[in-house]
Amino acid sequence: MLRHCNHQRLVFRHKLYQLREERDMKPDTFASLVSAMLYEKRFGPYFCQPVIAGLGEDDKPFICTMDSIGAKELAKDFVVAGTASESLYGACESMFKPDMDHEELFETISQALISSVDRDCLSGWGGHVYIVTPTEVTERILKGRMD
Questions:
Q1: What is the C-alpha to C-alpha distance for residues 70 and 95, in angstroms, rounded to an integer?
Q2: Residue range of the domain that includes 36
Q3: Do 93 and 44 fall within a single domain?
Q4: Model confidence at 100: pLDDT above 60
Q5: How far, in Å, CA of 70 to CA of 28, rounded?
Q6: Which of 10, 22, 47, 80 has its CA 20 to 30 A from that of 122?
């Protein structure tokens, strides 16, 4: 119920922004909106680490993550979140390189995610990988260990 309520609140605020500004919200603006919503609940925080990704002006990639009270962490290459974040950082730092094509990026993300999740007892069951391009958003589902 809580997840549904917050989703509705985000949709409402996005639609309100569209009505006021007569344009879609940029990813950095949306990140600020999520950050403000998390900070509102800082004394009884949501226990989540949102990851926000999108294409900004001139199709420039935008990625950011934040902690449970909304402190943003911006990056140009990659961000990680969750219980396996320590091993994800190591895997991503060793495998990531700039200017990869879609398939190479998917393979890198998949290998980093699966290898990191296998090292963390609280993670598992796979993941969803989204590749965002100026023309489409592609989702692929990874299956991981099921214990």
A1: 28
A2: 1-79
A3: no
A4: yes
A5: 13
A6: 10
Domain total of the chain: 2
Return d(Cα 137, Cα 9) in angstroms, integer.
23
| Nearest residue to 87 (alpha-carbon basis) of 117, 44, 124 | 117
pTM: 0.83
Task: Provide the H-helix boundaries in the chain.
Answer: 2-21, 27-40, 85-95, 102-117
| Rounded CA separation 106/118 (Å) | 18
3-class state of residue 140 by DSSP: strand
CATH of residue 50's domain is 3.60.20.10
Residues 92 and 25 in one domain: no
* Amino acid at site 69: I
Mean pLDDT of 131-142: 91
Token couple for 51: 């990851």
